Amino acid sequence: MNPFSSGTRLSDMIRAIRASKTAAEERAVVRKECAAIRASINENDQDYRHRDLAKLMFIHMLGYPTHFGQMECLKLIASPGFPEKRIGYLGLMLLLDERQEVLMLVTNSLKQDLNHTNQYIVGLALCALGNICSAEMARDLAPEVERLLQFRDPNIRKKAALCAIRIIRKVPDLSENFINPSAALLKEKHHGVLITGVHLCTEICKVSSEALEYFRKKCTEGLVKTLRDIANSPYSPEYDVAGITDPFLHIRVLKLLRVLGQGDAEASDCMNDILAQVASKTESNKNAGNAILYECVQTIMSIEENGGLRVLAINILGKFLSNRDNNIRYVALNMLMRSLTVDSQAVQRHRATILECVKDSDASIQKRALELIYLLVNENNVKPLAKELIEYLEVSEQDFKGDLTAKICSIVEKFAPEKIWYIDQMLKVLSEAGTYVKEDVWHALIVVITNAPDLHGYTVRALYRALHTSFEQETLVRVAIWCIGEYADLLVNNVGMLDLEDPITVTESDAVDVVETAIKHHTSDVTTKAMSLIALLKISSRFPSCSERVKSIIGQNKGSFVLELQQRSLEFSSVIQKHQNIRSALVERMPVLDEATFSGRRAGSLPAAVSTSGKSPLSIPNGVAKAAPAPLVDLLDLGSDDTPAPTSSSNNFLQDLLGVDLTQPSAQPGAMQPSKAGADILMDLLSIGTPAPVQNGSTNGDLLSIQDNNAPIASMDTISAPSSMMDLLDGFGPTPPKREDKGPAYPSIVAFESSSLKIEFNFTKQSENPQTTDIVANFINLTPNVYTDVLFQAAVPKFLQLHLDPASSNSLPANGNIKQTMRVTNSQQGKKPIVMRMRVGYKINGKDVLEEGQINNFPRGL
């Protein structure tokens, strides 16, 4: 006999497949068996139909296609015998799903079997319907399922309840048909029927507010009694799990009580006593008990306020944190984070235990505990918590240092009681994990230092000490070099000594040594070296006796392959050699930086700075505003993408610094002149890594630059600088800037409009690049509600390139608007129009809203 004929037993086929030594052999066996099954199907062999389908199911589980056998399932389901129906329904659930049209053919067979006199066949039909029911089948068969909820056999009632859950999820409108039958199931004594009835009631409450009110009034007391009976029931071997009677039913009842008690004080009050009993009497030494306790805690936290119960619930979570099981500790940390908004004082009592979880070996627990500690910090506990976290930073794993460093910096900056404590803690973090500190953090540290004149000497001495032990930390080196450049005289002369300091002796040569080491150190990058060159230029002015040595060190970079270092070396050497008369004014100490302005720009609350960079903006996730540095901080912002527009605090700063009059000759004495030109010239004079400006109207002039003779110095109708200012380094006179041609105008369009949101597109196109279109999207809120977490996403065909800039805000005020800029490049410009699919997501009162649409009405010619 052919070993692969339809008469082969299922076990023989499985044995042949398992005996295959290679994938090719397995495929050959499956291919021959499938051929035999096809032949049997074509011959309409009824004797082996059930065996063929059993083989097909095994082949399907191996991942091979079996679609050719789907109709055999329907034939077996239509058979009168139970064995054939059992195989047929099993094949139906495995080989088909609700999306396949062939499933519609089985609806009539299901209806007949749901009305069958044999309860086992009814059970088969209910199982199949509960697994693959579609919305159409749900509407057709819901009456049969509703009737079977009152069937005499408990197993059929249980399966009917599970099938009803599937029907309600597919067609929520049918839930009202099941309210009364499901309420009747809550009085069942059979635990299997009761647990499915509770589950069904929970699902109905989620989709129907009327049903929720009905169950609150009619069923709350009965559920409380059921839970009390289960909790107090004696040992029952049929339902016992680890000494607890039916923990699964416990959990289901607690979930339903949570739904009923949420937002209803009367129902919550009714269940307080039983929740306290479950929370206090359930054993926590087994997993079943822990599952019940966790569900009980969730219920207590969700129902209306009861202070004593909530403290009990949070204490249970505190015990979970001491458990050796990582999963239990993780869910406890998650629950404690949600409990903070309810009772933060009770969570604070477990602060020490949570802090120990930060030091756990499990990465997930570490991160979750760190997030929780971050939320627990306030003005009263910031010092001990910061001390513990910084001590752990020294021994933490490298993978965790980044997250830990970011949280410590945020905590210290947000809750620092005094500036000296803030500086001390930041220096500790920089010494231990400086490479993980982000740019905006150390920029903020410099801003704070400039605003604490009585701590300048203390800070520069502390940084000098730290450098000798932590030269590998790049960020620490940058901050130290900046401070030494600014306050080297305070370092050498021990100015501003505090009582808590130890005396230190530093000579002028020692200060130069530190900066020289920073330039030559193997870990120093271009930014650090460039900052060191600026520091050396300033030191040469502070300590004239070291000028020759400084000149020698700076001169060593004249042949550098890095253009930035080469340029600065040439410029600074020229200042030292030829321009002694302006050097002291050029590099005098930085003024106090505006702390409020920096904080505001960093938080994105002030308008974004105007970009003077020739580069395109960085790709930032849509909806997240890029923090812009303060104007004068950007003097040392070596990696900045944008040169910020100066604020009023920088008015006439360049005139004071250089003693040069840059105002209009015809200006009236004392009149406020535009200082943007002066401040921008100063920025380019001392900034590092800022490309030559290309924007129209920019007033930047690179006084010391030798790389671009055509860079515009100032807008001709704004400033007229004396020609002697332009000849600081032997000339290179600028040419007036060309006025930018905005290109043809295009009409605005309404890209999208709904009852709650309107989006308008405004277009600009530059004549020198006709393929590129700049689009400003204006999002208009048409409702009195505030939209939060606004996120705009767009997709375009392959012949288009799309670049999205961050939105002006991720919050859309009531009846207000926000803007977002995007750039579209059409490689088929003039041949194919621009088309775009868009999606806008936002939250209204915590609820997610998603709106989608396609934009086809772009103006022609874009």
Structure description:
The protein is α+β, with helices and mostly antiparallel strands and 862 residues long. It has 34 helices and 10 strands. The strands form 3 sheets. It has a 5-stranded antiparallel sheet, with no helix packed on it. Strands 6-9-10 form a 3-stranded antiparallel sheet, with no helix packed on it. The longest helix is centred in the first third of the chain and has 24 residues, at 209-232.
**Low-pLDDT sequence parts:** 1-6, 605-741
Largest sheet: 5 strands, antiparallel
Assign a percent range to the helix content: 40-55%
Count of DSSP E strands?
Answer: 10
Number of helices: 34
Gyration radius over CA: 37 Å
Cα(first) to Cα(last) distance is: 73 Å
**How much beta, percentage-wise?**
5-15%
Tell me, briefly, the overall form: extended
- Based on secondary structure, the structural category is alpha+beta
Mean pLDDT: 80
Order of the strands making up the biggest sheet: 3-4-5-8-7
Helix and strand topology:
Blueprint: H1 10-18, H2 23-42, H3 49-61, H4 70-77, H5 82-95, H6 107-114, H7 119-132, H8 135-148, H9 154-170, H10 179-185, H11 191-207, H12 209-232, E1 240-241, E2 244-245, H13 247-261, H14 265-281, H15 287-302, H16 307-321, H17 326-339, H18 344-348, H19 351-358, H20 363-376, H21 382-395, H22 398-415, H23 419-433, H24 439-450, H25 456-467, H26 474-493, H27 508-520, H28 526-542, H29 547-555, H30 563-578, H31 580-586, H32 595-603, H33 653-658, H34 676-686, E3 749-753, E4 757-764, E5 772-781, E6 787-795, E7 800-807, E8 817-826, E9 836-844, E10 847-855
Antiparallel strand pairs: 1-2, 3-4, 4-5, 5-8, 6-9, 7-8, 9-10
